[in-house]
Amino acid sequence: MLVSQILKDKGDLVFTASPHETVGAAAALLHSRRVGAMIVLDEDGAIAGILSERDIVRVVAEGGGAALDRPIKGCMTKDVVFADPEETLDALLARMTDRRIRHLPVCKQGRLVGIISIGDLVKHKILEAQAEADGLKAYIAAG
After folding, report:
1. Are 1 and 116 in contact (CB under 8 A)?
2. Residues 105 and 38 sit within 8 Å (Cβ to Cβ)
Protein backbone atom coordinates (compact mmCIF):
# COMPACT_ATOMS: atom_id res chain seq x y z
CA MET A 1 0.00 0.00 0.00
CA LEU A 2 1.21 3.50 -0.85
CA VAL A 3 1.17 6.62 1.32
CA SER A 4 -1.11 8.30 -1.23
CA GLN A 5 -3.74 5.59 -0.63
CA ILE A 6 -3.54 6.08 3.12
CA LEU A 7 -3.95 9.84 2.72
CA LYS A 8 -6.92 9.26 0.42
CA ASP A 9 -8.63 7.29 3.22
CA LYS A 10 -7.46 9.54 6.04
CA GLY A 11 -7.66 12.93 4.38
CA ASP A 12 -5.05 15.61 3.92
CA LEU A 13 -5.80 17.87 6.89
CA VAL A 14 -2.58 19.05 8.52
CA PHE A 15 -2.51 21.27 11.59
CA THR A 16 0.18 23.92 11.52
CA ALA A 17 1.66 26.52 13.82
CA SER A 18 3.96 29.51 13.67
CA PRO A 19 7.43 29.21 15.22
CA HIS A 20 6.53 32.22 17.38
CA GLU A 21 3.54 30.57 19.11
CA THR A 22 4.19 29.60 22.70
CA VAL A 23 4.74 26.04 23.84
CA GLY A 24 1.64 26.36 26.05
CA ALA A 25 -0.56 27.53 23.17
CA ALA A 26 0.76 24.73 20.96
CA ALA A 27 0.12 22.15 23.70
CA ALA A 28 -3.46 23.41 24.02
CA LEU A 29 -3.94 23.11 20.25
CA LEU A 30 -2.57 19.57 20.17
CA HIS A 31 -4.93 18.65 23.00
CA SER A 32 -8.03 20.29 21.49
CA ARG A 33 -7.35 18.84 18.03
CA ARG A 34 -6.56 15.42 19.49
CA VAL A 35 -3.32 15.04 17.53
CA GLY A 36 0.22 14.25 18.61
CA ALA A 37 2.14 16.64 16.37
CA MET A 38 1.83 19.67 14.14
CA ILE A 39 3.93 21.13 11.38
CA VAL A 40 5.65 24.45 12.07
CA LEU A 41 5.63 26.80 9.09
CA ASP A 42 7.83 29.87 8.70
CA GLU A 43 6.56 33.26 7.49
CA ASP A 44 6.89 32.12 3.86
CA GLY A 45 4.84 28.97 4.44
CA ALA A 46 7.87 26.67 4.25
CA ILE A 47 8.29 23.85 6.74
CA ALA A 48 10.51 25.07 9.58
CA GLY A 49 10.03 22.05 11.82
CA ILE A 50 7.63 19.69 13.52
CA LEU A 51 6.39 19.95 17.08
CA SER A 52 5.36 16.78 18.86
CA GLU A 53 4.10 15.95 22.32
CA ARG A 54 7.54 14.50 22.98
CA ASP A 55 9.17 17.88 22.20
CA ILE A 56 6.84 19.59 24.66
CA VAL A 57 7.46 17.05 27.40
CA ARG A 58 11.22 17.43 26.93
CA VAL A 59 11.20 21.25 27.16
CA VAL A 60 8.89 21.27 30.20
CA ALA A 61 11.01 18.63 31.93
CA GLU A 62 14.09 20.78 31.35
CA GLY A 63 12.60 24.23 32.03
CA GLY A 64 9.59 23.63 34.25
CA GLY A 65 6.33 25.50 33.87
CA ALA A 66 8.11 28.61 32.62
CA ALA A 67 8.91 26.71 29.41
CA LEU A 68 5.26 26.98 28.42
CA ASP A 69 5.79 30.68 27.71
CA ARG A 70 8.72 30.11 25.34
CA PRO A 71 8.27 30.15 21.56
CA ILE A 72 8.03 26.71 19.97
CA LYS A 73 10.93 27.50 17.62
CA GLY A 74 13.22 26.71 20.55
CA CYS A 75 11.94 23.19 21.12
CA MET A 76 10.56 21.98 17.79
CA THR A 77 12.39 19.32 15.80
CA LYS A 78 14.14 21.19 13.00
CA ASP A 79 15.63 18.18 11.20
CA VAL A 80 12.34 16.99 9.73
CA VAL A 81 12.09 13.56 8.15
CA PHE A 82 9.62 13.50 5.25
CA ALA A 83 7.57 10.95 3.36
CA ASP A 84 6.67 10.89 -0.32
CA PRO A 85 3.15 9.94 -1.47
CA GLU A 86 4.58 7.14 -3.63
CA GLU A 87 6.43 5.40 -0.79
CA THR A 88 5.12 2.16 0.61
CA LEU A 89 3.66 1.55 4.04
CA ASP A 90 6.49 -0.88 4.82
CA ALA A 91 9.19 1.66 3.87
CA LEU A 92 7.67 4.24 6.22
CA LEU A 93 7.27 1.74 9.05
CA ALA A 94 10.97 0.91 8.74
CA ARG A 95 12.00 4.59 8.65
CA MET A 96 9.83 5.51 11.62
CA THR A 97 11.12 2.56 13.63
CA ASP A 98 14.77 3.28 12.78
CA ARG A 99 14.46 6.99 13.56
CA ARG A 100 12.12 6.48 16.56
CA ILE A 101 9.58 8.98 15.26
CA ARG A 102 5.81 8.83 15.19
CA HIS A 103 4.83 11.47 12.61
CA LEU A 104 5.98 12.16 9.05
CA PRO A 105 4.92 15.13 6.95
CA VAL A 106 4.13 14.03 3.41
CA CYS A 107 5.48 16.29 0.66
CA LYS A 108 5.03 16.12 -3.08
CA GLN A 109 7.30 18.30 -5.22
CA GLY A 110 8.19 20.35 -2.15
CA ARG A 111 4.56 20.98 -1.15
CA LEU A 112 3.01 19.69 2.08
CA VAL A 113 0.16 17.33 1.16
CA GLY A 114 -0.54 15.51 4.43
CA ILE A 115 0.85 13.92 7.55
CA ILE A 116 1.16 10.24 8.43
CA SER A 117 1.34 8.88 11.96
CA ILE A 118 2.57 5.51 13.14
CA GLY A 119 -1.04 4.83 14.15
CA ASP A 120 -2.20 5.39 10.55
CA LEU A 121 0.39 2.89 9.32
CA VAL A 122 -0.41 0.27 11.95
CA LYS A 123 -4.14 0.59 11.20
CA HIS A 124 -3.57 -0.03 7.49
CA LYS A 125 -1.09 -2.84 8.15
CA ILE A 126 -3.75 -4.59 10.26
CA LEU A 127 -6.32 -4.08 7.49
CA GLU A 128 -3.87 -5.59 4.97
CA ALA A 129 -3.25 -8.60 7.21
CA GLN A 130 -6.99 -9.08 7.77
CA ALA A 131 -7.69 -8.92 4.03
CA GLU A 132 -4.94 -11.48 3.37
CA ALA A 133 -6.29 -13.79 6.09
CA ASP A 134 -9.82 -13.49 4.71
CA GLY A 135 -8.54 -14.27 1.22
CA LEU A 136 -6.71 -17.37 2.47
CA LYS A 137 -9.77 -18.57 4.39
CA ALA A 138 -11.92 -18.16 1.27
CA TYR A 139 -9.34 -20.00 -0.83
CA ILE A 140 -9.18 -22.89 1.65
CA ALA A 141 -12.97 -23.05 1.97
CA ALA A 142 -13.35 -23.17 -1.83
CA GLY A 143 -11.14 -26.25 -1.83
Report:
1. no
2. no
User: What is the rounded CA–CA span in Å between residue 98 and residue 120?
Assistant: 17
CATH code assigned at 10 = 3.10.580.10
CA 105/CA 96 separation, integer angstroms:
12
Maximum Cα–Cα distance for the chain, whole Å?
Answer: 68
Q: For residue 52, what are the domain limits?
A: 3-142
Divide the 143 residues of the chain into consecutive groups of 10 and give the mean pLDDT of each group. Answer: 92 93 97 96 94 96 96 95 95 94 93 94 91 88 82
Give yes or no for a contact between 27 and 75, defined as CB atoms under 8 angstroms apart. Answer: no
Domain tally, the chain: 1
Q: Tell me what pLDDT residue 73 has.
A: 96
Q: What is the pTM (predicted TM-score) of this model? A: 0.85
